[in-house]
Amino acid sequence: MNIRAHVWVLPLLLAAGTGSGLAVARGAQPERPETVMITLHAKAGVESDLARVIASHWTTARRLHLVLDTPHLTLRSDDGKTFVEILTWKDESVPDDAPAEIRAIWDEMNRLVEARGGAPGLTIEQVSVVSDSVR
User: Is the pTM above the cut of 0.90?
Assistant: First the structure.
């Protein structure tokens, strides 16, 4: 390729925002997914409300492209009072810099939970996927 060809390729790449080296050259960091397990203990009488808020959290996070599609799992205890959600943020920085729409959902979650058995109403643990098969 001659020098003249290089002169028009770079402006095209810059205008399109493409090119495998451009993001790195601009200082962007590669994404580092983070899988978390969120445990929520519902206050008496608001279990259905909390289930709806948890579903809204997932739907909103997906719409905003904040999470990976898998793994995702929402569990409810047999007594209906404890929920566990497992999800993977697309990058570990997402929870620290969450959009206002997500923070509002977190506020609602916190209003619907209570401490139980010495544990806070809502806990978040970073976890690792050992197996992705569901039986």
Answer: no
Distance in angstroms (rounded) separating the CA atoms of residues 61 and 99: 10
Residue 41 to residue 129: CA distance in whole angstroms: 23
What are the domain boundaries of the chain?
A: 1-30, 34-126
Residues of the chain with pLDDT under 70: 1-28, 133-135
Burial per residue of 9-18, b for 16 or more beta-carbon CB atoms within 10 angstroms, e otherwise: eeeeeeeeee
Euclidean distance between CA atoms 28 and 9, whole angstroms: 22
| pLDDT the model gives residue 9 | 35
CATH class of the domain comprising 34-126: alpha beta
Residue 131: per-residue pLDDT: 81
Q: Is 123 helix (H, G, I), strand (E, B) or coil?
A: strand
CA distances from 62 to 40, 69, 126, 131 (A): 20, 8, 19, 23
pLDDT of residue 78: 97
